[in-house]
Records
---
Amino acid sequence: MYDVEKRGNVPIYEYLYKCIRNDIVSGRIRNGEKLLSKRRLARQEGVALITVENAYEQLLVEGYIESRERSGYYVSFDAGRFVMSDYSDDSSRSSNGNIYLNHRSANNSIGNIKTDNTSSKANNTNSKANNTNSKANITNSNNNISGVIERDIPQVPDIADFVSQRLFDDAFPFDIWSKLMRKVLSDRNPECLAPPDPCGLPVLRYAIAGYLMRSRGIDADPDNIIVGPGTEYLENILLILSGGGALTAVEDPGYKKMGLLCERAGHKCLHIPVDRDGLDVSVLEGTSVRLVNISPSHHFPTGVVMSAGRRAQLVDWAEREDAYIAEDDYDSEFRFSGRPIPPIAAAYPERVIYMNTFTRTLAPSIRIAFMVLPDKLMDRYRQKLSFYSGTVSSFEQLVLAEFINGGYYERHLSRMRNYYGKRRESIMRLFESKEKGSINRNDTKEKYDDTKETHDNTHADRSYIQKQKENSETGIFVPIKDVAGLRIVLKAPDSLDDEKFIKALSDKGIKLSCINDYCYSHNSQYDHHFLVSFGAASEADFAKALPLMEKAAMECM
């Protein structure tokens, strides 16, 4: 195990990343060895799952490990060829940021790569790697290795996964999708085999433009739409268009990968707090920010809807500063009550980049996202990035275009809203029944019904803070009512030890995250607030997990 208590002021994910990296570089974890699953490592170290995810993500980005589908993570760095020179310390970096390597089989120094044949120097490097890092307090002992390599360790069976971003498998329209796949193949469309258009196939871009007009009121020019394999890819394009070293703003709490992407692209990142009205626009005043990333219709992870006043304030700032707003319309499809929240892009297309993905509503394996660029940014894209190759399979694009143009996608969304809206109500009743000391098992029996349309009611939307204050139910966990998204926020008593509670649940096979996991620095406002995803967790999972959660909470207060 790695002693996270010795990390000093270094974030836990960075500490884990450096410990594992140093063990890989020193050869103690060998090339090709399998690492522990993220869940098992999180449980072993007593940290949140997202902490391990961030550590593994960084190792993945830097090429130390690789992800193998349905298998796990494996070391992909051969320490037999390269040994880092004192890599556990920042002193191993040259003035231009490069990392020096020792190549054991070479005889000459080439560029920034130092060569070394002597075992004494290699051993010296390993001994340095074993020492405690003075800046990050990183300890590498041979005992740590069993803490990260996959071994024959008894596993705690999963009882409930309240972190997963997946949807229920039976919610996917397999029959329709397979029918459209056969149609695309039988049509023998030449585009199916041709290299994909860098911006996406025209037929899909036109289909997306039509859908946006019908569902979100956005008059999008199909020629301004860019299709990519995910929002991270599209965000990278925006960062390039913003210019190197520019200051970019992100929500805090929020989708932390955005902050990581900014930093990796050489951008300075400004973390802006989110309050009851959404992003605090006043923080932008007087800064050199030229791109701000927001999710105004349903903020992740709090569920806050950005107020109209804040939206107007944000657009006014963007126009004055010649800046752009990247609007991620996250979870807008899963709104279960009232009218849809209109996107900012519908009213201000020249200042707002609209972004969304089909991954959230179809399946994580369908990696198709898109953004709509303002005219000026689209011109800049054609000038700077027209050499980019298409990144999404033409075949998948053609199938999705058929799915949208045939009206299947909107009917699918209607069924999904109906299905998950009922499931949300059932789960909320389950919590309320549990607080009263009994559970109505009939409330947990919901079926995916593809014949019913979305129900509606007149509950007004409330901000996150208002929802919390208006929940006066008594009980260990108080669900904070919301009308959108596939997550429920639970408020626990102030006396709860959050970290101890998360670890106790992990030991019982229950995956759970807290809102502070998505903050760039700890925010006491979100202490004792837990995020429960029900996209792939059944009512039966909740019924089974709730007593264990309550017991664990009582033990951690």
---
Amino acid sequence: MTKTSKFTPWDEDTGDTTTTANNTSYILSKKPLGDGSYSVVFECKNTSTGRHYAAKKYNKRLMYGFENMLKNEFKVLNRISLSHSHLLSLIDYFETEESFYLVTDLARGGDLWNKIADEGKLNEQTTRTITKQLVESVDFLHKHQILHHDIKAENVFFQSKHQDSILLGDFGLAKILQPQEKFHEISGTLSYMAPEMLDRKIGYDFPVDVWAIGVCVYFMLCGYMPFDCDDDDETKDAIRNCKYLFEPSEYWVDISSEAKDFILACLRVDPQKRFTPSQLLQHSFLKTNLAKPTITISSPLKRSFSNLSALQRDQIKNILQKAGGLSAPALSHSSSINERLERGRFDSLNKDATLHGAICPSPECVSIFSSPANSTSVSRDGSAINMFEESLKWDGSQKKALPLNTLRHEASFVL
């Protein structure tokens, strides 16, 4: 391996990046999952473990002048990864001569926007289930001084097509705020912007995420946006003056007063009077007949803490005991052991399976690949053991996988 001095989003202290002559540890699908202004997302497979993830590919030429945006996304993702069950996690990262890659969780269920478009609108129970998860994830971010800054239906992903369990993603505009710090840049998606975001002089912080949650809930319940006028000027005026209605009445006749009041609590012009995520979690709308997200997993793949091996359980217990129990910050707002272990993080990466910023040859691209026999719809890099060890590390340090002596299944490819 050699060292090269150049810009990378993940090595800003020294500017040195590892260069490897070995093949990249990932194979990419030729068909993209989605794209943005600067990036394209592909499904990928780790060739060492057979695990499937999402690879967000940034074109270096398009990113010229926007390097800080990518640095910021990496910084936020690296800080929150494996800390909350409804936040997208960073698995790995590397670069080639032409591109940067961020490897993250793979959500096979599409996004909330497409779900609403397909179904017209969502029933109140489904909306409640999705909203509670969204508010919990935002509450976690805010308690760790992170402003998401781009909450919208397109950035709420489903772990699979057979469940309503979400992952909040796309942290390209996210910001780690210092106490009392305000953000002044006008950026984001206009239809989801809070009134204070339209005035550079005022500045804004965490309450803008709550406003965006309110817009999402309105959208889920009726199938159209509360602030979506003929042109941008009209939309801005509607936002500044909170001009929206629960109309046409036939769309809202079966919607409860609790749901409408929840939206009102989010869409308050004065950010100081807007509910916080913690207050929203106590709102009657989220307390009424809340069902757990539906999860459909075939019986050969379904696992839980109860059927882990004795060795795995002992190792988990040892890690937790060394860390002083479950009171560490990264786990303070996370879900239970069973819920976390059912999310598909059972096969550890071996010591050579992660690249951690290495400069590599371009990944091979294939037309079709099949999931390994032991892969669930959403993939994480760590084993059950490594997951807890890394979750307890809030300092964003590099991941060190602890491999288990478990059977591995290779995926077959059709070129």
---
Amino acid sequence: MTTTAEVNEFTGRLAELVKQVQAGNEVLLTQERKPVAKIVSTSEKEIVSGAKLQIHSLKGHRVLTPVISQSELADEMFSRQ
């Protein structure tokens, strides 16, 4: 089941809408009756696995960084040459 809520009433109904999402329902946020966002349930496992996928995409790539001291970095950041 999908529940629709206007953005301007969202904060007043947040607790109710979160309970609906936890029960497996979707919440569609609208602004002037046009959809702007959808809130769906997720599990902690899905969040962690998504993060792992992003990290694995960096595996095997070399990143070259210059050797620079903290004072040199500060000078560069604040243009104190």
---
Amino acid sequence: VQYVFGFTLLAGITVLLAAIQATRDERRYESAMLRTLGARRRIVLQGVAAEFTTLGLLAGTLAAVGATAAGYFLATRVFNLAYTLDPTVWGVGLVAGALLVGVSGTLATRSVVNHPPIETLRRG
């Protein structure tokens, strides 16, 4: 079950990084507008970190649900064993999801926040 959980979480992080790359220009423009309106770089970065941490909690929850469902199916249907719920999967899922997605998402978009707003706004 733990391997299924890890694989699900890694797949989710891969999708997240692809989504970050796809929305890079939009995030750059949003950051430029916020900084032009007076938000400091630190505040914008904290908002980005909060966004990705929340997404990580959701990803961790989905990974834990997927791992639990797969474990239940395999134990009861394939191997004819009694299934016991492991709360560690849920705890690790939430914490690992929040940390991994929060940190990787924030690091991946840090260059967007550090980009000078005037250059972004001039390009349109």
